[in-house]
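Pair request: fold both.
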Amino acid sequence: MPRFVDSDVRRQEILEAAIVVLAESGLQGLSFRTVAQRLGGSATLVTHYYRSRRDMLVGLTSYSIAKGRDQLSVLEHDVEDPLARLRALLCWLVPDDAESLREEHARLNLMPARDSDADIAHFFDEWEREVRQLLRSHLIPLVPDSELDGITDFLRALTNGVCLSAIEHPDTWTASRQHSVITRALTVVRSSAI
């Protein structure tokens, strides 16, 4: 009798394996075979759910955004204070643990193909749109409308910089150092408070 496999769970497993492959080997190492090997199966394990690498990259975009929303929802659960909610968002945006550092490596490894691959450009565009929308929504109760765009830009550039620093120098850009930078950034937000 065939074994029941939850399609949504299997897709998630495939995309998580794809993230690991991207982090370790970059886009050139991403194939159905390498993803399937991560899962202990053959390439048909992946092709059953994704017809092409393009389909897998499109799935990765949706999955990354949905996963991010779920993680942030857990972090913000029962957090009422707007500044504390912003802190939770900023901490979520930086790679302060092994999993988030791996995800940032994967994202960075996609960068060289951004200009030549529309699906990868779409991934970056959607991710940026999501992050900026989250930053804006978290800042609205904290800063005047006239400061909203500038502080959104500041926090986005700051979190991107922390991500890159953590990838380049993981031994020195520890979680506590990353959170210290976030604490300093929150003083800028407080100084602009409504």
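--- second member of the pair ---
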Amino acid sequence: MPPTAPMRHEEEMNDRAAQIFIDTYERERSTLPGADTWLARQREAARASFAEAGLPHRRLEEWKYTDLRQALEKAGVAASPVHGGAVVLPDTAVASAFASIDRHVLVFVNGRHRADMSRAVRLPKGVVLHPLVEVLPEQWAKDLVERRLDAARQSEDIVDLNTALMQDGVALRIRKGVRLDKPLHLVFLSADDGASHTRNLIRLDEGAEATIFESHVGTATAFADIVTDISLGAAAGLSHVKLQDEAPGAIHMATLRAHLSERSRLSNFTFTLGCGVSRTQNFIRFEGEGAQAHVNGAYALKSRQHADQFCVIDHAVPGCTSQTLFKGVLDGASEGVFQGKVIVRPGAQKTDGRQMTHALLLSRDAAMNAKPELEIYADDVQCAHGSTVGELSRDAIFYLRSRGIPEARARQLLVSAFLDEALDLVPHEAAREALKDLAVGWFAGGEGGR
């Protein structure tokens, strides 16, 4: 059957948007990091794969609620941002949320490391921390970049764009039994219009431990394309807290891919406040028994913001535990999305996998799409999933107002109490309190406080 006129228009638009990135690759391939290493072949294969698949669109099941192609076309994002020059971090509560915490700091501006703005000194022996370009010749970096997860192939296809064009990022390796002495804070600033492609590689060897913060802020109509590859050795533990508050016209595309060995522990939390269109993808694969993964998050949206949370937990071996909870509040004409899947492979007995999402609509124009899924091929498991969408209780507001509390304050108390269940799962006490303060500030400064 020939395509209809709207379908032809979409395909042509996809071709135009994707071609911009393909042309960028052809123009810059010789100057991209790793041009004289194994990465050159990997980039070329990724470019070919991306050219075939194109940018994601709503006709793909895993992208049915978010049309990245259309968002890029509408925003008119250029292929590359302007580089260089003096920049400063925005003077906002989000940009300084972790400022009171003793931490190492690495700053990336438009996807490139800025040593003059970073602060990471006196690292413990056994901690290797470098910009990405310095570790590309090493085998462990090659192993992480080349690994793929086929549990959600449509959603991982977009990683090919990052592989073809990645410019910089952080490479962290912690040797056996070593603990990072204080959190590592990765700050990503979009200071110019255009696209940046960042790749982060994190490897914790057996028994290693670390805490990582991420802050994504910006003032530009940019496209931030970030992929983070994580490998946890036996009994290793990683706590990861991400905060995203980019400019209203920006597009944020982030993918985290984690491989967990036996008895390893991953605790991940994402808090989304900003951006025009954002999609956060988490792919977790258990490769050793007794591992645990906690993948949680919260979001607070207003105006016409769109935030998509996509999460796939792949239980490929027995005896592992995963828990996922996402809670969000939506005001104005904002739209939230949660798509989650727990896969239990044949033979993965004694699996405990749970997934839940709750959304609170503060406006009649706000919308929420939720699609949690279970895909189970083993019989001795404990798995559950669920979703709720609702509005503030009029009875609860009336009760608080009858006790002398103004309506705006009553709404704020109820919203904070709703989000606290998720924010209580932030795996760092000081960061947890900082994010709770941001949630209160979001309500006080926007539509939610009307």
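Observation on the second member. Confidence is low (pLDDT under 50) at residues 5-10.
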